[in-house]
Amino acid sequence: MAKVVATTSAAFDRRHLWHPYTSLTDPLPVYEVASAEGCTLRLADGREVIDGMASWWCAIHGYNVPELNEAARAQLTKMSHVMFGGLTHAPAIELGKRLVDLMPDGLDRIFLADSGSVSVEVAMKMAVQYQHARGHGTQRSQFLTLRGGYHGDTTGPMSVCDPVGGMHQLFAGFLPQHAFYDRPPGGVDEAIDQAYLEGLEQFFAEHAAHAVAFIVEPVLQGAGGMHFYSPAYLPEFRRLCDAHGLLLIYDEIATGFGRTGQLFLSHTASARPDIVCIGKALTGGYLTLAATITSAHVAETISGGAAGVLMHGPTFMGNPLACAVAVASIDLLLGSDWPSHVQRIASQLTRHLRAAAQLDAVKYVRVLGAVGVVELHEAVDVAHFQSYCVAQGVWIRPFGRLVYLMPPYVITDREIELLCRTVVNYVLALPPVETP
Question: Is the pTM of this model over 0.85?
Fold first, then answer.
């Protein structure tokens, strides 16, 4: 039997607990959180830090939210979980109603998953089963997607993440091989690049006959590089999928629930997807929950196929506790003036990060909704950066060459200014970039 040999909490954590994208033998430092409220994380040593990450983009209402606390307490007195196979319950039904109202017309068939990555797995399986039911089972097996994308860490989603610059190169020989095309040129306000569009049309012409779907993060590519592109490309994606008999899948796990300034990008005119994946902010950061939402046509086609069912069923599918909190989170969001909050955050990020754009170490500064990105020429020393941030009273988690902010919507202007000032001052202190 394994024995506990570490004598302190920190030592135990360092020896036994594996953190995301971290070595277990030489881990990055971690900071123990004792409690959280509003946009503030209180560390076990008494220090407080302003959270600029919304706990990886999900805690849009901040922490210790009375309405969400009450929803969890009320549901706990009834049941925390019950299997969804053969049973149903009010929280799932109420959440389903909310999601049907939130989605564009025609997207109203809902599969409740247990994480964002699983919702993408389900979407990919839906697409495969759909094409199989249409008689294309042996001819179509690939997915088309864009370089620079990130869709999750489980096997299916990994296979449609960026194969070169992404986080999963190690698994190249293990993952299914799909077809990738360059992401659209950057800039949300830019006109369509006709040369790019012609290349994309040729890409579809070459690969679509063997594909089941085209999967993209609309407008904002998240963990693959924080790349923003024009929504004008979305109707073109829709047109090409229709022309070649492919399903269009939007991964809105990062973009959903107002983060870009729109509630969901799936509402873009003439660009409605066939399947959309949502997660992260769905429960306001309280519990893990996601959903894969599709049309009656897709659902009925799958149900009319050889299997007769969608071949997926997580143990914690439709968890009542998570569903109840998700209902409360959606109601809280829609009951607030969230567009004004997101616009205010965008204005503050633009104002306070502007100084970074002039610095030698910086490649680009860009803002979209409640997302601010400072892209450097060289990778960030994560341990040093986070130590610096905590000393300044903020929490920011960079990756690669990207220092970015995606705070809760309830953040104050003063807190945004502190986050941005910390980023700018850190970059100011970096050594000059060596040029060839």
Answer: yes
